[in-house]
Write a sequence for this structure.
């Protein structure tokens, strides 16, 4: 396993995917998902030019933030409990996993205490799976209308976690759908809501996601190898 080769490979594939659909490679941000990986791996990635990193646990962000601070942009991509917002609010560059009014309000409140405007994405569940978080498409417009006047958050776009599929083509419709929803919501002309971020695509399907308009891809395994959850 060689992180340098892996990063080069992923960047190359992002470039190829962009070329194949006539997009500029600057439109796509690679978020290296460092969850469960040690500080040494994060440091290596940073030295190889990675700027954006994704984590799904508050504790892991706070621990790694102690080491790297603002040398890296921290993306919270996992489910966020309202009582833990305060630990990461001044550390994260974006929260991808906002899926309730309550959570948005707490993020807004905690951001205000630090005089920050925090960028957020609304997590949308495209394929119904009980185990996944995210709001339903039908509830999105109402949520946007409820959060539009919160002064210390800025809704930048939408995020989804597609199902695990063996053939990435099977997720193409999921990504197309999220893009369509973003366009539809922008057309509603909700005050303060003008979204351009689509956070979608992981190791297995980021190429397809880019072809369908992803502006952020969240890639872990292809860069750092399989995660080992058993060591706790
Ligand atoms: C773990 C994780 C990823 C990265 O998954 P890989 O398949 O390892 O690339 C992306 N997004 C979220 C929300 C994750 O939790």
């Amino acid at each position: 396993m060689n992180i340098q080769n892996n990063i080069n490979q992923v960047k190359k594939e992002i470039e190829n995917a962009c070329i194949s659909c006539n997009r500029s490679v600057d439109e796509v941000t690679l978020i290296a998902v460092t969850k469960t990986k040690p500080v040494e791996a994060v440091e290596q990635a940073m030295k190889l030019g990675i700027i954006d990193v994704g984590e799904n646990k508050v504790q892991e962000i706070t621990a790694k933030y102690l080491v790297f601070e603002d040398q890296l942009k921290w993306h919270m991509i996992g489910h966020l409990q309202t009582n833990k917002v305060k630990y990461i609010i001044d550390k994260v560059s974006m929260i991808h996993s906002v899926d309730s009014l309550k959570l948005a309000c707490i993020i807004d409140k905690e951001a205000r205490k630090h005089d920050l405007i925090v960028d957020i994405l609304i997590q949308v569940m495209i394929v119904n799976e009980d185990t996944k978080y995210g709001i339903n498409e039908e509830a999105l417009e109402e949520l946007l209308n409820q959060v539009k006047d919160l002064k210390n958050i800025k809704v930048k776009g939408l995020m989804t976690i597609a199902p695990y599929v063996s053939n990435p083509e099977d997720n193409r419709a999921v990504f197309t759908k999220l893009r369509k929803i973003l366009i539809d919501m922008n057309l509603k002309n909700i005050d303060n809501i003008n979204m351009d971020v689509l956070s979608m695509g992981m190791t297995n399907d980021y190429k397809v996601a880019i072809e369908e308009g992803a502006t952020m891809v969240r890639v872990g395994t292809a860069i750092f190898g399989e995660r080992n959850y058993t060591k706790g």
